[in-house]
Design a protein that fits this description.
Layout: E1 2-4, E2 11-13, E3 19-25, E4 36-44, E5 53-61, E6 77-82, H1 96-107, H2 113-132, H3 139-151, H4 161-171, H5 174-181, H6 192-236
Antiparallel strand pairs: 1-2, 3-4, 4-5, 5-6
Helix pairs in contact: 1-2, 2-3, 2-6, 3-4, 4-6
The structure holds zinc ion (ZN).
Length: about 260
């Protein structure tokens, strides 16, 4: 059987020792999926440079009561358990749209480096727009406006010259450079390794910009809270009214003290 390893993209002919599969008949009563089984399949890559396992699972209809898979029906659900992209979990204070572009760029990096690079590039543009407040037609113009802002010290404080050097370094790489300088609708061929460079740039800017800013805000908030509690302690140690004084009523219509 001909098969292409999703880890290394190497087409190959699968032999028996390279594949293992099985199924679990679902005996749970009163569930909504009907007569079903969970099937799994594990394949090992024959490429010596890869040798990775690919693991998939499917939820499939079975003939009533037999546990035998009914191939007249398409799988109810298919999961690729491995490989499953290489994205890192990002904190929830990073805008959702940016994290989605990043995660999808990771998921399809090997299958479609072109689409992956396009998403990573859109994510990078989204970050410059959201975090730095710079918006131009082309990404390359936004990067140059960002450099001007950093030089003039008008950029957000977490955008260091190091961030810009990283962006520029990636921008100078072959097709990525063309990708950044072209219109957003132009598709430029990109290798998986180049798409990975863009993904790593996005990851490091998430850290340097959003995470660093969040940590600083948290530190300041903690200091402000401490200052507040110190102030409250000071107030409570002030001498209070003599105990003989009549208590003030909270009702404005109540007769005041004589
Ligand atoms: Zn492989």
């Amino acid at each position: 059987m001909n098969w292409t390893c999703p880890h290394c993209q190497r087409p190959q002919t699968l032999t028996d020792p390279q594949e293992q599969f099985g199924k679990i008949r679902i005996d749970i009563e009163r569930h909504r999926q009907g007569s079903a089984a969970l099937t799994y399949r594990i394949r090992g890559c024959a490429n010596d440079d890869c040798r990775m396992l690919t693991i998939t699972a499917e939820l499939r209809k079975t003939f009533d009561g037999t546990g035998n898979v009914n191939n007249n029906y398409a799988p109810l659900k298919v999961w690729t358990l491995q490989p499953q992209g290489t994205s890192k979990v990002q904190p929830d204070y990073i805008p959702k749209a940016l994290v989605e572009d990043y995660t999808e760029a990771c998921l399809i990096r090997d299958l479609s480096p072109k689409a992956s690079a396009t998403l990573a590039r859109r994510c990078l543009q989204g970050m410059i727009r959201d975090f730095c407040g710079i918006s131009k037609n082309r990404l390359v113009d936004e990067i140059s406006a960002l450099r001007t802002a950093v030089d003039a010290q008008t950029a957000p404080r977490d955008v260091s010259p190091d961030s810009l050097d990283a962006i520029d370094a990636v921008r100078k790489v072959g097709n990525i450079g063309a990708h950044m300088e072209s219109d957003i609708n132009n598709i430029v061929p990109v290798e998986p390794v180049e798409a990975q460079l863009l993904i790593e740039l996005v990851e490091s800017l998430f850290d340097e910009w959003y995470v660093a800013r969040h940590k600083r805000q948290q530190r300041f908030a903690a200091v402000a809270k401490l200052a507040e509690s110190k102030k409250a302690t000071k107030v409570s140690t002030k001498p209070t009214a003599p105990p003989s004084a009549p208590p003030l009523s909270s009702d404005p219509d109540a007769p005041g003290p004589a």
